[in-house]
Amino acid sequence: QNDSCLKCSFSFFQNGYPARRRSLVDDARFETLVVKQTKQTVLDEARQRANDSSIDHEIDFDDKPTQKPDEQNDDDNGLTEEEVVLANAIADGPEAERAIQRAALILRLREGMNSLSRVLKTIDKYQGVVVHLETRPNQKENGQLDALVKIDMARANLLQLIKGLRQSGTLEHITLIGEDNISAKNPWFPRHASELDNCNHLMTKFEPDLDMDHPGFSDKEYRERRKQIAEIAFAYKFGDPVPYIKYTETENKTWNAVFTTVLDLMPKHACVEYRRVFRVLQEEGIFTPNGVPQLEDMSNFMKKYTGFTLRPAAGLLTARDFLASLAFRIFQSTQYVRHTKSPFHTPEPDCIHEILGHMPLLADPSFAQFSQEIGLASLGASDEEIEKLSTIYWFTVEFGLCKEAGEIKVYGAGLLSSYGELFHALSEKPEHRPFDPASTAVQPYQDQEYQPVYYVADSIDDMKDKFRRWVSQMSRPFELRFNPHTGRVEVLDSVDKLESLVHQLNTEVLHLSNAINKMKAPSLL
């Protein structure tokens, strides 16, 4: 770094703010890049396996390929994503190869019905069963037909059928549309909180072992302490009590320094919801200047007021995994403490940031509902939508402002635990915009300096209503609901499920109606 950069970094540290910091938005973008690279690797490997396959079924076509081998492009010779999913399923073993798979093929037939006849004979040769067939004239090419053929066929035969059809001259084009479990368009996501045991993928950036700029990089004792606490979190399984951490005197001193600062700033600058819960935490003896609260105590407190609970995390989770936990009213929190030489900043969220910044508002019913709805929106979302949801989370849950009695107050956890940016956000220097999810979702953020733009909500309830309307326009082709009785996320994709939900809602409305009537009834006394 040059001198100006060093001076810039030093000035941020002076104000309790890091020159480099982690953000969920950056994580989401990094995750998208990794997913693309991984997907390409899987595609390449699957295509190589298909080309090297020892299964060699001959297809009897009179037609010869219309292109020379060196003229056929990768798209014609390779596998589509749907076919890669099928190839990976076959690789599970002989039983998987022989398993009967239903699939739909979209074909463009060069010679109309003559080509269709050859295709149907080939399907029969591979012991496939045609369960549905539609044809229509191609709108662009006279004499060609478009066909939709649904078939049941052993997976191994199906893959070889597609490969052979693609290499023949009978077809102009072939596309596999997977049904059942071969579709890459139906992503896995957790349906129950117990499945969060599988949602613990870590982002390794800014780890003290890897990042030379991390405050604890040269402190072997601190790095070892982080590893110990991480191992405890890795061993955690759904249903276990949150592990107890015996914090050291140094860690408790760091907590004291941050806690007393927040205690001083909170009455004037924090929103009323935060102040109210903060006082209750003090009254119950959980928030004291003497030591770091235990996550189990915080979890029990939150559960009592909103049903939110805590789950220990070994480090920084991927954006998708972190947001998914919110759908179940679970907040994944680290248990390690920032390095003592920089008590007012950390390049990644530590338990002090999460306990003081996030957890009080997760014990507020309205804010807890907003957090859960962000989580529900993330389940099954595309990578692009995860980035947008992460950006909204960044400008609300982390750096959000709201109106209160004609003044602007803070509810963002990043501001409540970073007094330098808190003063900046409430000054006249940055631009304050009304919260609008559509524009917030694409707003560039700053990770090297204070934000030039902050979004101000009229209230937490107003923010929640606007977010709901925006989420309804997402591309996800199904609707989700969290069932608080079973703790499961339900996909509302059948009439039976909708009828059951309507019955439950009618029961709730009846209870509300009865309560209103009783309140209106004259007293018998």
TrEMBL record:
UniProt biased composition (Basic and acidic residues): 45-71
InterPro entries listed in its UniProt record: ACT-like_dom_sf, ArAA_hydroxylase, ArAA_hydroxylase_Fe/CU_BS, ArAA_hydroxylase_sf, Aro-AA_hydroxylase_C_sf, Aromatic-AA_hydroxylase_C, Tyr_3_mOase, Tyrosine_3-monooxygenase-like
Cofactors that this protein relies on: Fe(2+)
Binding site for Fe cation: 353, 358, 398
Subcellular location, record wording: Cell projection, Axon
Region (Disordered): 45-77
Limits of the Biopterin-dependent aromatic amino acid hydroxylase family profile domain: 174-520
Keywords associated with the record: Cell projection, Iron, Metal-binding, Monooxygenase, Oxidoreductase
Pfam families the UniProt entry points to: Biopterin_H
SUPFAM superfamilies: ACT-like, Aromatic aminoacid monoxygenases, catalytic and oligomerization domains
One GO-annotated biological process of the protein: dopamine biosynthetic process from tyrosine
First-listed, main subcellular location of the protein, grouped into a coarse class: other
Single GO molecular function: tyrosine 3-monooxygenase activity
Gene Ontology CC, one term: perikaryon
Family as reported in the entry's similarity comment: Belongs to the biopterin-dependent aromatic amino acid hydroxylase family.
Cited PANTHER family: AROMATIC AMINO ACID HYDROXYLASE, TYROSINE 3-MONOOXYGENASE
NCBIfam families attached to this UniProt entry: Tyr_3_monoox (TIGR01269)
Name this protein carries in UniProt: Biopterin-dependent aromatic amino acid hydroxylase family profile domain-containing protein
Source organism per UniProt: Rhamnusium bicolor
